[in-house]
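dumping the sequnces here before i forget
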Amino acid sequence: MFFTILPDERRVLEIVGQCAQEMDVPAYVVGGYVRDRLLGRPTKDIDIVCVGDGIKLAEAVAGRLSPRPKVAVYSRFGTAMLRADGIEYEFVGARRESYSPDSRKPEVELGTLEDDQNRRDFTINALAMSLSETDFGHIIDPFNGLEHLEHKIIKTPLDPGQTFSDDPLRMLRAIRFSNQLDFEIEPSTFKGIAKYKSRIHIISKERITGELEKILMTDKPSVGFKLLFDSGILRLIFPEMVALQGVEDRNGRGHKDNFYHTLEVLDNLCRRSDNIWLRWAAVLHDIAKPATKKFDQEAGGWTFHGHEWLGAKMVPKIFREMRLPLDGKMEFVQKMVLLHLRPISLTKEQVTDSAVRRLLFDAGPDIEDLMKLCESDITTKNPQKMRRYLEGYEYLKERMALVSQADRLRLWQPPITGEIIMQTFDIQPSREVGIIKTALREAILDGEIENNYEAAFQRMLEEGEKIGLVKKD
Ligand code: CTP
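..and the predicted 3d for all of it:
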Protein backbone atom coordinates (compact mmCIF):
# COMPACT_ATOMS: atom_id res chain seq x y z
CA MET A 1 0.00 0.00 0.00
CA PHE A 2 1.07 3.55 -0.72
CA PHE A 3 2.67 5.26 2.22
CA THR A 4 3.94 8.82 2.58
CA ILE A 5 5.55 10.45 5.58
CA LEU A 6 5.36 14.22 5.45
CA PRO A 7 8.78 16.00 5.56
CA ASP A 8 8.21 17.66 8.98
CA GLU A 9 7.15 14.35 10.48
CA ARG A 10 10.04 12.50 8.86
CA ARG A 11 12.55 14.98 10.32
CA VAL A 12 11.29 14.34 13.88
CA LEU A 13 10.82 10.60 13.41
CA GLU A 14 14.39 10.20 12.12
CA ILE A 15 15.67 11.97 15.22
CA VAL A 16 13.57 9.61 17.35
CA GLY A 17 15.17 6.69 15.49
CA GLN A 18 18.70 8.02 16.07
CA CYS A 19 18.12 8.64 19.79
CA ALA A 20 16.52 5.22 20.16
CA GLN A 21 19.51 3.58 18.53
CA GLU A 22 21.97 5.41 20.78
CA MET A 23 19.95 4.46 23.86
CA ASP A 24 19.51 0.93 22.59
CA VAL A 25 15.72 1.03 22.94
CA PRO A 26 14.12 0.04 19.61
CA ALA A 27 11.33 2.52 18.77
CA TYR A 28 8.26 2.28 16.56
CA VAL A 29 5.32 4.39 15.52
CA VAL A 30 2.13 2.48 16.31
CA GLY A 31 -1.60 2.74 16.02
CA GLY A 32 -3.69 5.45 14.40
CA TYR A 33 -0.85 7.27 12.66
CA VAL A 34 0.29 4.26 10.66
CA ARG A 35 -3.32 3.44 9.76
CA ASP A 36 -4.12 7.01 8.73
CA ARG A 37 -0.95 7.44 6.67
CA LEU A 38 -1.79 4.28 4.76
CA LEU A 39 -5.34 5.52 4.23
CA GLY A 40 -4.19 9.02 3.30
CA ARG A 41 -6.12 10.60 6.17
CA PRO A 42 -4.86 13.60 8.15
CA THR A 43 -3.05 13.01 11.43
CA LYS A 44 -3.14 14.94 14.65
CA ASP A 45 -0.91 12.88 16.90
CA ILE A 46 1.79 10.26 16.58
CA ASP A 47 2.20 7.47 19.13
CA ILE A 48 5.72 6.17 19.63
CA VAL A 49 6.40 2.96 21.49
CA CYS A 50 9.91 2.01 22.56
CA VAL A 51 11.16 -1.13 24.19
CA GLY A 52 12.43 0.73 27.26
CA ASP A 53 11.81 4.03 28.99
CA GLY A 54 9.54 6.25 26.87
CA ILE A 55 10.03 9.31 29.06
CA LYS A 56 13.83 9.24 28.72
CA LEU A 57 13.51 8.81 24.97
CA ALA A 58 11.18 11.84 24.73
CA GLU A 59 13.67 13.96 26.67
CA ALA A 60 16.56 12.89 24.45
CA VAL A 61 14.52 13.73 21.32
CA ALA A 62 13.54 17.14 22.68
CA GLY A 63 17.25 17.91 23.24
CA ARG A 64 17.94 17.39 19.54
CA LEU A 65 15.07 19.48 18.22
CA SER A 66 15.36 23.15 17.54
CA PRO A 67 13.60 25.05 18.90
CA ARG A 68 13.67 22.68 21.85
CA PRO A 69 10.08 21.72 22.74
CA LYS A 70 8.81 21.28 26.29
CA VAL A 71 8.28 17.70 27.34
CA ALA A 72 5.10 17.02 29.30
CA VAL A 73 5.70 14.01 31.54
CA TYR A 74 2.88 11.90 32.92
CA SER A 75 4.87 9.71 35.26
CA ARG A 76 1.76 7.98 36.61
CA PHE A 77 1.17 6.53 33.13
CA GLY A 78 4.85 6.31 32.16
CA THR A 79 4.23 8.53 29.15
CA ALA A 80 5.64 11.79 27.83
CA MET A 81 4.51 14.18 25.12
CA LEU A 82 6.17 16.85 23.05
CA ARG A 83 4.86 19.04 20.25
CA ALA A 84 6.75 19.80 17.05
CA ASP A 85 5.38 21.56 13.96
CA GLY A 86 1.86 21.40 15.40
CA ILE A 87 1.93 17.61 15.79
CA GLU A 88 1.85 15.87 19.17
CA TYR A 89 4.37 13.08 19.68
CA GLU A 90 3.41 10.76 22.50
CA PHE A 91 6.09 8.42 23.91
CA VAL A 92 5.50 5.28 25.92
CA GLY A 93 7.46 2.17 26.83
CA ALA A 94 6.07 -1.07 25.36
CA ARG A 95 3.71 -2.60 27.87
CA ARG A 96 2.13 -5.83 28.76
CA GLU A 97 -1.16 -5.19 30.47
CA SER A 98 -3.69 -7.31 32.18
CA TYR A 99 -7.02 -6.00 33.31
CA SER A 100 -8.99 -7.11 36.31
CA PRO A 101 -12.51 -8.12 35.25
CA ASP A 102 -14.39 -5.25 36.89
CA SER A 103 -12.13 -2.32 36.23
CA ARG A 104 -10.55 -0.49 33.35
CA LYS A 105 -7.41 0.17 35.39
CA PRO A 106 -4.79 -2.17 34.02
CA GLU A 107 -1.86 -3.77 35.82
CA VAL A 108 1.10 -2.67 33.73
CA GLU A 109 4.52 -4.22 33.30
CA LEU A 110 7.25 -3.65 30.71
CA GLY A 111 6.88 -5.72 27.59
CA THR A 112 8.00 -6.24 24.02
CA LEU A 113 6.67 -4.67 20.83
CA GLU A 114 4.65 -7.84 20.31
CA ASP A 115 3.05 -7.49 23.75
CA ASP A 116 2.15 -3.94 22.86
CA GLN A 117 0.59 -4.91 19.55
CA ASN A 118 -1.36 -7.74 21.20
CA ARG A 119 -3.13 -5.38 23.52
CA ARG A 120 -4.43 -3.04 20.82
CA ASP A 121 -8.02 -2.83 19.70
CA PHE A 122 -8.06 -3.74 16.00
CA THR A 123 -5.66 -5.27 13.53
CA ILE A 124 -5.61 -2.03 11.52
CA ASN A 125 -4.63 -0.16 14.71
CA ALA A 126 -1.96 -2.67 15.68
CA LEU A 127 0.41 -1.86 12.81
CA ALA A 128 3.86 -0.67 13.85
CA MET A 129 6.40 1.22 11.74
CA SER A 130 10.07 0.81 12.50
CA LEU A 131 12.15 3.94 13.18
CA SER A 132 15.55 2.29 13.16
CA GLU A 133 18.05 3.59 10.59
CA THR A 134 18.43 0.21 8.92
CA ASP A 135 14.74 -0.35 8.13
CA PHE A 136 13.08 3.02 8.69
CA GLY A 137 9.44 2.88 7.54
CA HIS A 138 9.22 -0.92 7.57
CA ILE A 139 5.76 -2.07 8.71
CA ILE A 140 5.46 -4.78 11.33
CA ASP A 141 2.11 -6.40 10.89
CA PRO A 142 1.49 -9.45 13.08
CA PHE A 143 -2.28 -9.65 12.50
CA ASN A 144 -2.73 -9.00 8.78
CA GLY A 145 -3.70 -5.41 9.45
CA LEU A 146 -2.44 -4.35 6.00
CA GLU A 147 -4.68 -6.85 4.30
CA HIS A 148 -7.60 -5.75 6.47
CA LEU A 149 -6.93 -2.13 5.55
CA GLU A 150 -7.01 -3.05 1.92
CA HIS A 151 -10.20 -5.09 2.26
CA LYS A 152 -11.77 -2.59 4.63
CA ILE A 153 -12.21 -4.89 7.61
CA ILE A 154 -12.42 -4.15 11.34
CA LYS A 155 -11.23 -7.15 13.33
CA THR A 156 -9.82 -7.58 16.82
CA PRO A 157 -6.24 -8.92 16.92
CA LEU A 158 -7.04 -11.43 19.66
CA ASP A 159 -10.25 -13.24 20.47
CA PRO A 160 -12.96 -10.53 20.58
CA GLY A 161 -13.87 -11.58 24.13
CA GLN A 162 -10.34 -10.78 25.29
CA THR A 163 -10.00 -7.50 23.40
CA PHE A 164 -13.44 -6.22 24.40
CA SER A 165 -13.11 -7.30 28.01
CA ASP A 166 -9.80 -5.45 28.27
CA ASP A 167 -11.60 -2.25 27.28
CA PRO A 168 -15.33 -2.46 26.48
CA LEU A 169 -15.30 0.98 24.85
CA ARG A 170 -13.70 -0.80 21.91
CA MET A 171 -17.10 -2.24 21.03
CA LEU A 172 -18.25 1.30 20.26
CA ARG A 173 -14.94 2.12 18.60
CA ALA A 174 -15.43 -0.83 16.23
CA ILE A 175 -18.80 0.54 15.16
CA ARG A 176 -17.49 4.10 14.97
CA PHE A 177 -14.49 3.12 12.80
CA SER A 178 -16.74 1.03 10.59
CA ASN A 179 -18.97 4.07 10.09
CA GLN A 180 -16.14 6.63 9.74
CA LEU A 181 -13.95 4.61 7.39
CA ASP A 182 -16.71 2.73 5.62
CA PHE A 183 -15.26 -0.63 6.73
CA GLU A 184 -17.09 -3.89 7.50
CA ILE A 185 -16.91 -5.37 10.98
CA GLU A 186 -15.71 -8.94 10.59
CA PRO A 187 -18.52 -11.35 11.70
CA SER A 188 -16.86 -12.88 14.78
CA THR A 189 -15.88 -9.39 15.98
CA PHE A 190 -19.48 -8.22 15.54
CA LYS A 191 -20.77 -11.30 17.35
CA GLY A 192 -18.34 -10.43 20.13
CA ILE A 193 -20.00 -7.03 20.50
CA ALA A 194 -23.42 -8.64 20.81
CA LYS A 195 -22.05 -11.12 23.32
CA TYR A 196 -20.05 -8.79 25.55
CA LYS A 197 -22.25 -5.70 25.22
CA SER A 198 -23.30 -5.65 28.87
CA ARG A 199 -19.69 -4.91 29.87
CA ILE A 200 -20.15 -1.42 28.49
CA HIS A 201 -21.53 -0.46 31.91
CA ILE A 202 -18.00 -0.09 33.33
CA ILE A 203 -17.23 2.66 30.82
CA SER A 204 -17.83 6.29 31.77
CA LYS A 205 -20.77 8.09 30.20
CA GLU A 206 -18.40 10.76 28.85
CA ARG A 207 -16.40 8.26 26.84
CA ILE A 208 -19.53 6.58 25.50
CA THR A 209 -20.96 9.91 24.45
CA GLY A 210 -17.62 10.80 22.85
CA GLU A 211 -17.98 7.80 20.53
CA LEU A 212 -21.65 8.57 19.82
CA GLU A 213 -20.64 12.06 18.81
CA LYS A 214 -17.99 10.74 16.45
CA ILE A 215 -20.67 8.56 14.86
CA LEU A 216 -22.93 11.58 14.68
CA MET A 217 -20.25 13.54 12.86
CA THR A 218 -19.80 11.01 10.05
CA ASP A 219 -21.36 11.62 6.63
CA LYS A 220 -23.97 8.92 7.18
CA PRO A 221 -24.51 8.25 10.89
CA SER A 222 -27.46 5.91 10.23
CA VAL A 223 -24.87 3.24 9.41
CA GLY A 224 -23.36 3.47 12.90
CA PHE A 225 -26.70 3.72 14.69
CA LYS A 226 -28.02 0.65 12.86
CA LEU A 227 -24.96 -1.32 13.95
CA LEU A 228 -25.43 -0.08 17.51
CA PHE A 229 -29.05 -1.19 17.32
CA ASP A 230 -28.39 -4.55 15.68
CA SER A 231 -25.69 -5.46 18.19
CA GLY A 232 -28.04 -4.66 21.07
CA ILE A 233 -25.68 -2.11 22.57
CA LEU A 234 -27.88 0.90 21.74
CA ARG A 235 -30.53 -0.39 24.15
CA LEU A 236 -27.96 -0.17 26.94
CA ILE A 237 -26.58 3.27 26.14
CA PHE A 238 -29.57 5.10 24.64
CA PRO A 239 -32.84 3.30 25.46
CA GLU A 240 -35.03 6.27 24.48
CA MET A 241 -33.84 5.93 20.91
CA VAL A 242 -34.51 2.19 20.82
CA ALA A 243 -38.06 2.83 22.02
CA LEU A 244 -38.71 4.55 18.69
CA GLN A 245 -38.32 1.27 16.86
CA GLY A 246 -41.27 -0.84 15.83
CA VAL A 247 -44.62 -0.58 14.11
CA GLU A 248 -47.92 -1.27 15.76
CA ASP A 249 -50.87 -2.30 13.71
CA ARG A 250 -54.50 -1.90 14.66
CA ASN A 251 -57.41 -2.67 12.36
CA GLY A 252 -54.95 -2.80 9.51
CA ARG A 253 -53.66 0.69 10.29
CA GLY A 254 -49.96 0.98 11.07
CA HIS A 255 -47.62 3.92 11.55
CA LYS A 256 -44.09 4.48 10.31
CA ASP A 257 -41.18 3.00 12.21
CA ASN A 258 -39.91 6.05 14.01
CA PHE A 259 -36.43 4.66 14.60
CA TYR A 260 -35.68 4.21 10.92
CA HIS A 261 -37.48 7.45 10.13
CA THR A 262 -35.25 9.28 12.64
CA LEU A 263 -32.16 7.80 11.02
CA GLU A 264 -33.31 8.94 7.60
CA VAL A 265 -33.93 12.44 8.93
CA LEU A 266 -30.49 12.42 10.50
CA ASP A 267 -28.77 11.38 7.26
CA ASN A 268 -30.74 14.00 5.35
CA LEU A 269 -29.72 16.64 7.84
CA CYS A 270 -26.06 15.63 7.67
CA ARG A 271 -26.10 16.56 3.99
CA ARG A 272 -27.32 20.03 4.98
CA SER A 273 -25.36 20.82 8.15
CA ASP A 274 -22.38 19.72 10.20
CA ASN A 275 -23.58 21.50 13.32
CA ILE A 276 -23.45 18.74 15.92
CA TRP A 277 -26.26 20.29 17.98
CA LEU A 278 -28.55 20.35 14.99
CA ARG A 279 -27.59 16.72 14.39
CA TRP A 280 -28.58 15.95 18.00
CA ALA A 281 -31.87 17.72 17.34
CA ALA A 282 -32.46 15.42 14.38
CA VAL A 283 -31.84 12.39 16.61
CA LEU A 284 -34.23 13.74 19.22
CA HIS A 285 -36.94 15.43 17.17
CA ASP A 286 -39.44 12.56 17.54
CA ILE A 287 -38.08 11.12 20.79
CA ALA A 288 -41.43 11.51 22.58
CA LYS A 289 -43.43 9.70 19.92
CA PRO A 290 -43.54 6.41 21.86
CA ALA A 291 -44.76 8.22 24.98
CA THR A 292 -47.49 10.17 23.16
CA LYS A 293 -48.72 7.47 20.81
CA LYS A 294 -52.49 6.88 20.75
CA PHE A 295 -54.91 5.15 18.46
CA ASP A 296 -57.74 7.45 17.48
CA GLN A 297 -60.77 5.16 17.07
CA GLU A 298 -62.89 7.76 15.31
CA ALA A 299 -60.33 8.83 12.78
CA GLY A 300 -59.02 5.27 12.59
CA GLY A 301 -55.34 6.17 12.81
CA TRP A 302 -52.37 6.74 15.09
CA THR A 303 -51.64 10.12 16.66
CA PHE A 304 -48.63 11.52 18.50
CA HIS A 305 -50.18 14.72 19.83
CA GLY A 306 -47.81 16.91 21.79
CA HIS A 307 -44.71 14.86 21.00
CA GLU A 308 -42.79 18.02 20.12
CA TRP A 309 -43.63 19.52 23.48
CA LEU A 310 -42.92 16.40 25.55
CA GLY A 311 -39.80 15.75 23.44
CA ALA A 312 -38.41 19.18 24.31
CA LYS A 313 -39.06 18.38 27.96
CA MET A 314 -37.16 15.08 27.66
CA VAL A 315 -34.04 16.73 26.24
CA PRO A 316 -32.51 17.91 29.58
CA LYS A 317 -32.83 14.45 31.12
CA ILE A 318 -31.18 12.81 28.12
CA PHE A 319 -28.44 15.46 28.00
CA ARG A 320 -27.77 15.04 31.72
CA GLU A 321 -27.63 11.28 31.37
CA MET A 322 -25.20 11.57 28.45
CA ARG A 323 -23.08 14.22 30.16
CA LEU A 324 -23.80 16.64 27.35
CA PRO A 325 -23.71 20.36 28.20
CA LEU A 326 -26.77 21.74 29.96
CA ASP A 327 -26.30 25.23 28.57
CA GLY A 328 -27.36 27.21 25.52
CA LYS A 329 -26.53 24.26 23.27
CA MET A 330 -29.08 22.13 25.04
CA GLU A 331 -31.60 24.97 24.86
CA PHE A 332 -31.00 25.16 21.12
CA VAL A 333 -31.77 21.43 20.79
CA GLN A 334 -34.90 21.87 22.90
CA LYS A 335 -36.02 24.74 20.74
CA MET A 336 -35.54 22.72 17.55
CA VAL A 337 -37.50 19.78 18.97
CA LEU A 338 -40.28 22.04 20.20
CA LEU A 339 -40.65 23.95 16.94
CA HIS A 340 -40.10 21.18 14.40
CA LEU A 341 -43.77 20.93 13.46
CA ARG A 342 -44.44 24.65 13.14
CA PRO A 343 -43.09 25.38 9.65
CA ILE A 344 -45.11 22.62 7.97
CA SER A 345 -48.29 24.14 9.35
CA LEU A 346 -47.33 27.46 7.74
CA THR A 347 -46.83 26.25 4.21
CA LYS A 348 -50.41 26.99 3.15
CA GLU A 349 -51.15 30.15 1.21
CA GLN A 350 -53.88 31.38 3.53
CA VAL A 351 -51.48 31.63 6.48
CA THR A 352 -51.40 35.13 7.95
CA ASP A 353 -48.37 37.38 8.27
CA SER A 354 -48.76 37.31 12.01
CA ALA A 355 -48.41 33.49 12.12
CA VAL A 356 -45.21 33.78 10.07
CA ARG A 357 -44.02 36.59 12.34
CA ARG A 358 -44.62 34.47 15.44
CA LEU A 359 -42.50 31.64 14.07
CA LEU A 360 -39.71 34.10 13.29
CA PHE A 361 -39.99 35.46 16.79
CA ASP A 362 -39.96 32.02 18.45
CA ALA A 363 -37.08 30.66 16.36
CA GLY A 364 -35.08 33.89 16.48
CA PRO A 365 -31.59 33.51 15.02
CA ASP A 366 -32.07 29.75 14.65
CA ILE A 367 -34.73 29.89 11.95
CA GLU A 368 -32.40 28.67 9.19
CA ASP A 369 -31.38 25.66 11.24
CA LEU A 370 -35.02 24.92 11.98
CA MET A 371 -35.83 25.00 8.27
CA LYS A 372 -32.96 22.58 7.58
CA LEU A 373 -34.35 20.20 10.18
CA CYS A 374 -37.86 20.45 8.72
CA GLU A 375 -36.65 19.86 5.17
CA SER A 376 -34.74 16.84 6.42
CA ASP A 377 -37.88 15.55 8.12
CA ILE A 378 -39.53 14.89 4.76
CA THR A 379 -38.95 11.20 4.19
CA THR A 380 -41.78 10.39 1.82
CA LYS A 381 -40.87 8.03 -1.00
CA ASN A 382 -43.41 9.68 -3.26
CA PRO A 383 -41.50 12.14 -5.50
CA GLN A 384 -44.58 14.28 -6.17
CA LYS A 385 -45.29 14.66 -2.46
CA MET A 386 -41.63 15.37 -1.80
CA ARG A 387 -41.66 18.14 -4.39
CA ARG A 388 -44.86 19.59 -2.99
CA TYR A 389 -43.46 19.72 0.58
CA LEU A 390 -40.20 21.28 -0.52
CA GLU A 391 -42.03 23.88 -2.60
CA GLY A 392 -44.16 24.65 0.46
CA TYR A 393 -41.01 25.37 2.44
CA GLU A 394 -39.59 27.53 -0.33
CA TYR A 395 -42.81 29.52 -0.30
CA LEU A 396 -42.62 29.85 3.49
CA LYS A 397 -39.01 31.04 3.27
CA GLU A 398 -40.08 33.74 0.82
CA ARG A 399 -42.88 34.81 3.14
CA MET A 400 -40.46 34.93 6.07
CA ALA A 401 -38.02 37.04 4.08
CA LEU A 402 -40.78 39.52 3.23
CA VAL A 403 -42.14 39.72 6.76
CA SER A 404 -38.74 40.05 8.39
CA GLN A 405 -37.65 42.63 5.87
CA ALA A 406 -40.76 44.62 6.66
CA ASP A 407 -40.32 44.63 10.40
CA ARG A 408 -36.69 43.72 11.02
CA LEU A 409 -37.88 40.93 13.27
CA ARG A 410 -34.74 38.88 12.85
CA LEU A 411 -32.98 41.51 14.90
CA TRP A 412 -35.80 41.58 17.40
CA GLN A 413 -35.18 44.19 20.02
CA PRO A 414 -38.27 45.44 21.80
CA PRO A 415 -38.39 49.13 20.82
CA ILE A 416 -39.62 50.01 24.32
CA THR A 417 -37.64 48.70 27.27
CA GLY A 418 -38.78 48.18 30.85
CA GLU A 419 -36.65 51.21 31.76
CA ILE A 420 -38.64 53.46 29.44
CA ILE A 421 -41.93 52.15 30.80
CA MET A 422 -40.85 52.80 34.40
CA GLN A 423 -39.60 56.30 33.61
CA THR A 424 -42.66 57.25 31.60
CA PHE A 425 -45.13 56.26 34.31
CA ASP A 426 -42.77 56.92 37.20
CA ILE A 427 -43.16 53.42 38.61
CA GLN A 428 -40.85 50.83 40.19
CA PRO A 429 -40.17 47.37 38.73
CA SER A 430 -43.56 45.70 39.03
CA ARG A 431 -46.14 43.44 37.44
CA GLU A 432 -47.45 46.41 35.46
CA VAL A 433 -44.15 46.73 33.60
CA GLY A 434 -44.45 43.10 32.50
CA ILE A 435 -48.07 43.54 31.44
CA ILE A 436 -47.20 46.47 29.19
CA LYS A 437 -44.14 44.77 27.71
CA THR A 438 -46.17 41.68 26.81
CA ALA A 439 -48.96 43.77 25.31
CA LEU A 440 -46.44 45.63 23.13
CA ARG A 441 -44.82 42.41 21.93
CA GLU A 442 -48.19 40.90 21.06
CA ALA A 443 -49.29 44.04 19.22
CA ILE A 444 -46.12 43.96 17.13
CA LEU A 445 -46.35 40.23 16.43
CA ASP A 446 -50.00 40.56 15.43
CA GLY A 447 -49.08 43.36 13.07
CA GLU A 448 -51.34 45.83 14.89
CA ILE A 449 -48.51 48.32 15.22
CA GLU A 450 -45.20 48.68 13.45
CA ASN A 451 -41.98 47.57 15.08
CA ASN A 452 -40.62 51.06 15.79
CA TYR A 453 -40.19 53.39 18.72
CA GLU A 454 -42.92 55.92 17.91
CA ALA A 455 -45.66 53.35 17.32
CA ALA A 456 -44.68 51.34 20.37
CA PHE A 457 -44.47 54.46 22.58
CA GLN A 458 -47.97 55.54 21.61
CA ARG A 459 -49.28 52.02 22.26
CA MET A 460 -47.47 51.94 25.61
CA LEU A 461 -49.36 55.07 26.71
CA GLU A 462 -52.66 53.43 25.76
CA GLU A 463 -51.82 50.18 27.51
CA GLY A 464 -50.72 52.10 30.63
CA GLU A 465 -53.97 54.01 30.68
CA LYS A 466 -55.93 50.75 30.51
CA ILE A 467 -54.40 49.63 33.81
CA GLY A 468 -54.71 53.00 35.50
CA LEU A 469 -51.21 54.40 34.95
CA VAL A 470 -50.65 58.06 34.21
CA LYS A 471 -47.78 59.53 32.25
CA LYS A 472 -45.36 61.54 34.36
CA ASP A 473 -45.13 65.18 33.28
N1 CTP B 1 -6.29 1.99 21.38
C1 CTP B 1 -6.76 0.78 21.83
N2 CTP B 1 -7.93 0.74 22.55
C2 CTP B 1 -8.62 1.87 22.83
C3 CTP B 1 -8.13 3.10 22.39
C4 CTP B 1 -6.96 3.13 21.65
O1 CTP B 1 -6.16 -0.24 21.56
N3 CTP B 1 -9.74 1.81 23.54
C5 CTP B 1 -5.00 2.02 20.62
C6 CTP B 1 -5.17 1.80 19.14
O2 CTP B 1 -4.01 1.13 18.70
C7 CTP B 1 -5.22 3.21 18.59
C8 CTP B 1 -4.23 3.92 19.48
O3 CTP B 1 -4.40 3.29 20.76
O4 CTP B 1 -4.85 3.27 17.23
C9 CTP B 1 -4.48 5.41 19.58
O5 CTP B 1 -5.72 5.67 20.13
P1 CTP B 1 -6.61 6.93 19.78
O6 CTP B 1 -5.72 8.12 19.59
O7 CTP B 1 -7.73 7.00 20.75
O8 CTP B 1 -7.29 6.48 18.44
P2 CTP B 1 -6.88 6.54 16.96
O9 CTP B 1 -6.80 5.13 16.48
O10 CTP B 1 -5.70 7.40 16.72
O11 CTP B 1 -8.18 7.15 16.28
P3 CTP B 1 -9.10 8.36 16.77
O12 CTP B 1 -8.23 9.52 17.05
O13 CTP B 1 -10.04 8.54 15.61
O14 CTP B 1 -9.82 7.86 18.00
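The mean pLDDT is 93.
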